[in-house]
Amino acid sequence: MARSTLFACSTCGREEPKWLGHCPDCGEWNTFEPRSASLQPGRASRRRVPSGSDAGAVGGAPTVQSLGAISADDAARLSCANGELERALGGGFVPGSTTLLGGDPGVGKSTLTLQLAAAIARDGRTVLYASAEESPAQLRLRAGRLGLADADIDVWAGTDVDDLLDVLEQRKPAALIVDSLQTMQAAAAGLPPGGVAANKYVCTALAEWTRRNAAVTVLVAHVTKEGTIAGPRAVEHLVDVVLYLETAASDLRLVRASKNRFGPADEVGLLEMGTGGLGEVGDASSRFLVHRDGQPPPGVIVAPVYEGSRVLLVELQSLTTPAKASLPRVYADRIDMARINRLTAVLERHVGADVGGQDVYVNVAGGIRLRDVAADLPLALSIYSALLQRPLAAGAAAFGELSLAGEVRPVVAAERRLRALAQVGCERITHPGGDVGPAREGGPSRGTVHVRTVAEAVAALR
Predict the structure, then answer these.
(1) pLDDT in tens, 102-120
(2) So what's the pLDDT on residue 446?
(3) Is domain 300-461 in CATH 2.60.40.10, yes or no?
(4) Which of 202, 293, 311, 359 is least surrounded by CB atoms within 10 angstroms?
């Protein structure tokens, strides 16, 4: 007879037939909790598979098919009436796909999903909004604030995934939104909400229903204090798309795809919070620039960073002050501090800049988080300008990867970066030399400096 109880680690989800004090996988102590093994994740949804269902569907008998004979119609994507969200998705929602949407509390996840539900409903499709955190009255109040009170959206308020699956089999909606994953439970399996096993159970069951019915499901997820989706990483492997909604400036939001089976990963959409909810951002490429008259202050430079499939122009700001108590520190919110320490070490070794006794403050105007390696050179020049208290020229910009040997290495999409800078009037551009010329395809033709090392870049500023 099979065991009726298993023990699962609440940290990593490892299962054992008996209780262990120490988890062999994650190394945590006293994290194993009992749970019922009478139902495995997704079994409830498999019980609902009708006889004679699709041969290739989950729960039916799998069959072998020729790859060329399988239909894949990109035109069948569901539009969400938001160009920036569709950019992050790779063109819209693919039928049969499950999307995980995570973000900090208050960032606008529920607002975005309610707008999304209304947009799909306006297209004549049935939408079921499963609210596990709010009552229907609370959801109605939010819809009223967003001007969506008359949207044709079906609302179900509950927390048991088996009850939700019964409703889904009856109504067969084209789109399902669950807010949120961590508040759903599986009472029949004895799984309380928020646990590792419950998250995997709920996600598996809803993903199987979604694939079987060629629907679209969006699961709202909580995040940890580190900014990652709460629960085991196995949940992210169970879904097709993982989106993160991040705060940039006070009213700006970035929706970033960290996983996408139907499009490019790391694609970014820009949204703006207004009275009517989250809308698209106009002129996204220069949205993060600070417009000034005359010469900028020391430590300010423009950097063209590549986010997803487009170039965004951001302003980098640096400030240096004598270290307090002879203990220099780096302060940066949107840039990895280890990266700044590396750049200051390169400046000290190859330029002779005395950065070691300084506190270094680095800021990105607009609050966007920098990951592009092409920001190395403008960051180094910004810190050097702040250290010498020498302003850079008006319209100064730079891009390039900086090696530990002080070399400025070429980066991808150099010509696109040059064109984006030319459109906003940047004429003093420092970038790696090589085959990419500034005069090609409408790039700036004067004031552009090709450099091979950081020492040459610094000398060009003097």
Answers:
(1) 998 999 999 999 999 999 9
(2) 55
(3) no
(4) 293
DSSP assignments along 319-357, one per residue: EEEEPGGG---EEESSS-HHHHHHHHHHHHHHT----TT
- Integer-rounded Cα Rg, in Å, for the chain is 26
What mean pLDDT comes out for the span 348-360?
Answer: 94
Domain boundaries along the sequence of the chain: 1-38, 39-47+76-280, 300-461
pTM, two decimal places: 0.81
- d(Cα 194, Cα 106) in Å, to the nearest integer? 19
How far apart, in whole angstroms, are the C-alpha atoms of residue 305 and residue 350?
25
Level-2 CATH architecture, domain 39-47+76-280: 3-Layer(aba) Sandwich (3.40)
First-to-last C-alpha distance (Å) of the chain:
81
Q: What pLDDT sits at residue 191?
A: 78
Q: Contact at 8 Å (CB) between 186 and 200?
A: no
Residue 266 tokens, joined: 């790391």
Would you give the DSSP letter of residue 444? -
The set of residues, in sequence order, having a beta carbon less than 8 Å from that of 96 and lying 6+ positions away, is 210, 211, 213, 214, 215, 216
**Kind and range of the H or E run holding 237:** helix 234-238
pLDDT-based confidence at residue 61 (cuts at 50, 70, 90): low
Q: How far apart are CA 416 and CA 408, in angstroms?
A: 18
Stated as kind and residue range, the H or E segment containing 5 is strand 5-9
